[in-house]
């Protein structure tokens, strides 16, 4: 019996590189160095093809959206590529379907805008990139927008603010799913000690 639990990171044209790759670094370091925890992480795109990101990096996907294994955690990154997704009814319907099937939904940066457009954030606390806070409120005025929070954990839904905040959110995920000591191991392993030089 397959008892592996899975985290899927969505890739789409125009995804912000660090929104996807930052959490990937955290989650892949964890799952590869602590396989006994029983988790794996992979990327996927709509058709399984490589995706060109916001700043020109091309990233390969491990799976296609419709043929990937079932997810326990979905991570929806942001980036300029989220703007067309806000009115892409097929994508929004797919997101709504994941809400019913995936126990934990997470987002980085403007990925939360897609969740708002899909109706997932109704009446819930959430955050996004500082430059999109007003848009988040406009998409769904019932959202309790938290502009100062690096990430917001609301049980079965976690949103994080812009770009590098996805690293913090992913470390929080490790803490939540495997414990604080494991999260500290991962933070040390990737040598993440944020102290700005400017």
Automatic annotation (TrEMBL):
One annotated GO molecular function is: lyase activity
Taxonomically, which superkingdom? Bacteria
Segments spanning the bilayer are: none
What InterPro entries does the record point to? Class_I_gatase-like, DJ-1/PfpI, INH-QAR
Q: Where is the DJ-1/PfpI domain?
A: 6-175
Q: Which SUPFAM superfamilies match?
A: Class I glutamine amidotransferase-like
Alphabetically sorted, this entry's keywords are:
Lyase
What start-end ranges are recorded for coiled-coil regions in this protein? none
Q: Which Pfam families match?
A: DJ-1_PfpI
Q: What is this protein called?
A: DJ-1/PfpI family protein
This protein's species is Streptomyces carpaticus
């Amino acid at each position: 019996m397959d008892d592996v639990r899975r985290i899927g990171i969505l890739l789409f044209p125009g995804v912000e590189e660090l929104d996807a790759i930052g959490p990937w670094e955290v989650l892949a370091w964890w799952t590869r160095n602590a396989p006994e925890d029983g988790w794996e992480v992979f990327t996927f795109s709509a058709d399984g093809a490589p995706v060109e990101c916001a700043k020109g990096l091309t990233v390969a996907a491990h799976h296609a959206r419709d043929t990937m294994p079932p997810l326990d955690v979905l991570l929806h990154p942001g980036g300029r590529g989220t703007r067309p997704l806000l009115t892409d009814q097929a994508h929004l319907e797919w997101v709504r379907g994941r809400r019913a099937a995936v126990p934990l939904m997470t987002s980085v940066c403007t990925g939360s805008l897609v969740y708002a457009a899909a109706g997932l954030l109704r009446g819930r606390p959430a955050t996004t990139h500082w430059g999109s806070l007003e848009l988040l409120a406009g998409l769904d005025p019932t959202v309790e927008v938290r502009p100062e929070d690096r990430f917001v954990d609301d049980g079965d839904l976690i949103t994080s603010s812009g770009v590098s905040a996805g690293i913090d959110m992913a470390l929080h995920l490790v803490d939540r799913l495997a414990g604080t000591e494991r999260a500290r191991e991962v933070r040390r392993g990737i040598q993440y000690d944020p102290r700005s030089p400017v």
